[in-house]
């Protein structure tokens, strides 16, 4: 059919393919929330504890600062949420921070965000898994005793799950996330009821302990404020993953942007409520957290020692409110662990997607971009898991130490994305004339400006307060990713330049005639097929070529050749040293020398076998020969396959592989209408999306 | 040119290629001896010790049996040498035991010999290296302390050397071998002079020690004779590698057979002289060897204990004759070690060669057969080294324990080869009429019959006396090789059957028309070249196909396509999910469904890059697509390469790889005239040869 008729057909086809599953794919808010919020919500499991940990350095007395820090975190949370509500409206395509930064601040900024996000994914896995294990451990001591091992095992499990291509399902996410939220709220409510209404006294397991501190006398103003800033940066762990929704807009039901914005707000609200609730309960139940419990946590005046494991705040509070080992306590611990593992899983969904977008922009190997490329996705996933596992092992699955690395990346992308948004509004304000719209834009810009300023400030604070505590590690990681991606992009650009078709090409490149060669080892079906196919091609000249590796076999062959009366001349290349490759290469080169404007077309009969060990027994020399021929100019190499019976199995296997589901489909939402600047091209951020990628 | 003119040309060419290095390749006797005899001669370094070891079980008194055992070994040696002189005459092509057994006793026997030889190679490496280390250790104690480690390191070194394709050189072999022989003879002569002439008393380091034995009272007749048989079997270690020359005939200067036979005789003579000399000196210098020195060797009545290392007889004798640590002592120790390492190296030369012959007979993957197939050779070498290393580690580089495994394989091939020779003569006697020849044949047959009988007897003795001591291990190894090779052969036979061209094929296989497809991602030089080439092929229909992965890019592409006015219709396949493979496969399948008798020819533009990591960045989806297409019937896949500048490097690399020297070239001698039943095909045995393989 003609090219003209393709577009409509394609649109139709495309639609047809998509429409049938639209309903099932688009997420209602109640499902979208758990899908995108498992990461930010789960951070409630560790953020509060981090705050107390840091404060404890100035002694228990410093705990009374925690509400203020909570407030600061809340304000920050609202700022970030408000800012991202602007992103959501401005980039309904689901533009992630990478897109926002790239389009508004240029390639470098975009790449920085991308590096930050990649590091962020790794840490999401490391931190969430570690914290999950710690929470599980509060109910099952055995687990804590083998923390690192369990954490690594969990990573391996998640990896295998995602390698097998398990599809992310909204419902699968909804249940544990809602259980977790419900559990925490029940905890808070029941805590308030018991404490305020029934006036019962609730005491955390660590209530009677004390904390050793060099600064019992209280800290000097400067040192104190530094400490508070550090505590605050730790608290900022609660914000990780907030941006997720801004990448998922196309996955929402219509009106997409509005729904996304609402969900974002809900998410923020729930998160801060839980965060504050937990901190409040922690204070009222007298939870004690020490940075180094082994020596700083005093039990009846004695240091706790190394065999003491410090349970997460949330589980200590649960122990106080519900009673240690009670059903609701266990339930909450399980839900917390589960939601944390889900949070880790989001990284497995996001990483390959961001990868595919970076590949689209040629910062990563192209094949990451094409779909159903299991290999590429797998590599991404294994890379992610490997890095996370290394971190977990190095930091002994200690969430506290891992969080020091975590927050930097998050705020790098926050800041750049918000700054980008400011630019975005400025640009639009230049052209926009509608007063209402302008007013709206001004408001949005104001919000984003404040967001950029605030997150930027936090970033600086984090860098100052956390650098020596490990933030430098993630900076190194970012630099690494940045360097590699720039190198890859440079390579692609160079190649593109080298390959660019100038106008003369078609003339210079076009050769005059084709000389075809069919490689023959013996006369069997594959050879005959290759000969038949070659004949069909009506090239200017056709000959069969055999390499005389064994004198007798060659004599044999020539005899058969004449008997069968095959109408193609058989040329025999002498190979006294039993080489196959060189004689052919040399013969081809000679042909080229004789008529330089000719093209030599080499037909290689190949068997297609089923099993890898069969592969070892066949085609090896053919493969090697091909490899060599590809380096010889003016040659094309044609494989004429002959499918052996055993190949059936392999065909099926290959098919299965091609139909493999890449992780992270749901959150991407359906592909967007073709013609628009492909969301695939531009969408990105922690969870990529709109990439028009979906399983059938 | 026509087929007819090829044969003479090929002969000429072949000759031309060979003649230029004939001189440098053919070995004069004085060089052939060290090349082929390093293995059998070196066994003098451990064989005598083994005899004493076993005898010591019956106490020192039993040592006086050793001369008789030496005599037995000598007789056996002469028998074997005499027998192989017949082989050499009967199979000037350098027929190894494998050929002799296969042609005269059939496939099974041949395969058994082959398995035996393969095991034999592994053990040659293990034993020679271990013994080499022990001899070196007698001069440098440090080495003995880290025996296993040093041995493994040596194996690794040899392996790397052979992987790099170092060429075996006659001279390189000559020097250390002659040093060793000279050293041993000097030892004997000087020993005799000092002892008999000057009447000095020479005492070995262990002269004053005694040996504990449960049988001090002497053994019962039966037990004793069993012990003597065991001692004899151990002594037979001196015969390992004798057959080597019989494979190397074509490497000799003319008259090949005669020279080979002479060399064989010389070798036997030297070997037995050294063997007996060493044993005699060992007795007269009072060397004491115990099977378990730690507990059975008594120093002033006390067991030697575990930190005692028992030095090889040859070095103890040297210590007695030359004086411990004297220059000649060190010299001999070094020469011994060196010649032993050379002996190990012969296995590295023989293994891949036997492999290539077995491959020719389709018992091993075909590619082992083709020359310059570095990959295949490397695999063989690594396999050999790996197996040897495992043995060395398992047996702690203890040559004594390893030798228990060694001798079985050797005598399996001796026996079968000799039996084969008997058959050979019988066959010829049936036809031969010339009386002189017949007499000669009768003599030869008599010799071989005796050889077969004697070696067979020894084989039984070895099996009985050594089975529990480890011989079973090598039997298991042989069974393993046998099974694998049979399986491979079966596979090849099945495939051959499936592929066999019946007369109808050419009709059924021949399709009607070709529909060509050029895969286009963007318009650049590779695409244009692919288009140009495809056009040349004048197939019945030609279209360019692109997969619309990104809507914009596609629009772009179509625009350019029209601008350039490329005369080929551009078909756009919709791929809303960014797959590349599936749409193409499905499209091809559709074409096939529509006209089942058509062939679809798919042209894939490929870049050829230089470095492996560049490869990662390109062609991945092309490769995968090719893989899938090969499973689709009625399709041929054409790669149209575009060589990037960086590919130059890789081309050179590939060339180098193709010019790599496979080990074991010298001993193979030059290729034999084509037309003859290819010696390549049939020659074999410990060092394979005449395979018509040689470096340029």
TrEMBL record, chains A, B:
UniProt GO cellular component terms: membrane
Keywords annotated in UniProt: Membrane, Transmembrane, Transmembrane helix
Membrane topology: Multi-pass membrane protein
Renumbered residue ranges of the record's region Disordered: 653-696
Pfam families the UniProt entry points to: AA_permease_2 (PF13520)
GO molecular function list: transmembrane transporter activity
Protein name: APC family permease
Organism, as annotated: Streptomyces daliensis
Highest classification ranks of the organism: Bacteria, Bacillati, Actinomycetota, Actinomycetes, Kitasatosporales
């Amino acid at each position: 059919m003609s090219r003209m008729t393709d577009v409509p057909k394609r649109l139709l086809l495309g639609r047809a393919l998509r429409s049938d599953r639209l309903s099932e794919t688009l997420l209602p808010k109640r499902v979208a929330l758990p899908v995108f919020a498992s990461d930010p919500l789960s951070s409630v499991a560790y953020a509060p504890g981090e705050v107390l940990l840091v404060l404890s350095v100035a002694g228990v007395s410093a705990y009374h600062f925690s509400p203020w820090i909570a407030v600061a975190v809340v304000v920050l949370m609202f700022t970030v949420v408000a800012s991202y509500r602007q992103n959501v409206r401005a980039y309904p395509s689901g533009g992630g921070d990478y897109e926002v930064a790239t389009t508004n601040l240029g390639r470098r900024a975009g790449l920085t965000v991308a590096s930050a996000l990649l590091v962020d994914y790794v840490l999401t896995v490391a931190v969430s898994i570690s914290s999950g294990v710690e929470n599980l451990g509060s109910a099952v001591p055995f687990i804590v005793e083998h923390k690192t091992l369990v954490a690594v095992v969990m990573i391996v499990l998640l990896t295998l799950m995602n390698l097998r291509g398990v599809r992310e399902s909204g419902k699968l996410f909804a249940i544990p996330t809602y259980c977790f939220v419900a559990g925490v709220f029940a905890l808070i409510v029941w805590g308030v009821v018991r404490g305020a209404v029934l006036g019962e006294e609730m005491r955390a397991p660590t209530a009677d302990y004390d904390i050793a501190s060099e600064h019992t006398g209280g800290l000097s103003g400067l040192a104190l404020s530094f400490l508070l800033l550090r505590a605050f940066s730790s608290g900022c762990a609660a914000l990780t993953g907030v941006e997720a929704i801004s990448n998922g807009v196309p996955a929402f039901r219509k009106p997409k942007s509005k729904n996304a914005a609402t969900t974002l707000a809900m998410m923020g609200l729930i998160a801060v409520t839980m965060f504050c609730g937990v901190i409040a309960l922690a204070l009222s139940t007298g939870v004690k957290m020490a940075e180094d419990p082994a020596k700083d946590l005093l039990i009846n005046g004695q240091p706790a020692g190394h065999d003491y494991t410090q349970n997460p705040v949330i589980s200590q509070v649960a122990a106080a409110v519900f009673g240690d080992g009670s059903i609701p306590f266990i339930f909450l611990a399980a839900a917390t662990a589960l939601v944390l593992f889900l949070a880790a899983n989001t990284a497995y969904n996001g990483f390959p997607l961001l990868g595919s977008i970076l590949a689209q922009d040629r910062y990563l190997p192209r094949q990451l971009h094409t779909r159903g490329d299991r290999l590429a996705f797998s590599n991404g996933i294994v890379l992610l898991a490997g890095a996370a596992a290394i971190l977990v092992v190095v930091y002994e699955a200690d969430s506290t130490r891992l969080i020091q690395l975590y927050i930097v990346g998050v705020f790098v992308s926050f800041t750049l994305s918000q700054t980008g948004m400011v630019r975005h509004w400025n640009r639009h304000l230049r052209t926009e004339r509608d007063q209402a719209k302008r007013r709206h834009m001004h408001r949005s810009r104001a919000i984003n400006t404040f967001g950029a300023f605030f997150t930027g400030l936090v970033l600086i604070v984090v860098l100052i307060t956390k650098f020596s505590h490990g933030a430098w590690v993630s900076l190194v990681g970012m630099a690494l990713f940045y360097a590699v991606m720039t190198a890859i992009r440079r390579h692609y650009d160079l190649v593109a330049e080298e390959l660019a078709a100038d106008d003369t090409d078609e003339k210079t490149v076009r050769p005059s005639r084709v000389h075809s060669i069919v490689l023959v080892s013996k006369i069997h079906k594959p050879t005959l097929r290759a000969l038949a196919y070659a004949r069909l091609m009506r090239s200017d000249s056709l000959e069969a070529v055999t390499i005389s590796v064994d004198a007798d076999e060659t004599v044999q062959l020539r005899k058969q050749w004449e008997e069968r009366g095959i109408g193609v001349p058989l040329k025999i290349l002498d190979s006294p040293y039993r080489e196959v490759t060189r004689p052919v290469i040399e013969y081809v080169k000679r042909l080229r020398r004789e008529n330089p404007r000719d093209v030599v077309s080499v037909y290689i009969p190949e068997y297609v076998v089923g099993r890898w060990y069969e592969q070892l027994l066949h085609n090896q020399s053919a493969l090697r020969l091909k490899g060599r021929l590809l380096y010889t100019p003016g040659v094309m190499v044609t494989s004429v396959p002959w499918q052996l019976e055993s190949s059936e199995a392999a065909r099926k296997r290959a098919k299965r592989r091609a139909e493999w589901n890449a992780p992270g489909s749901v959150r991407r939402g359906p592909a967007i209408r073709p013609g628009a600047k492909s969301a695939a091209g531009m969408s990105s951020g922690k969870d990529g999306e709109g990439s028009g990628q979906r399983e059938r």
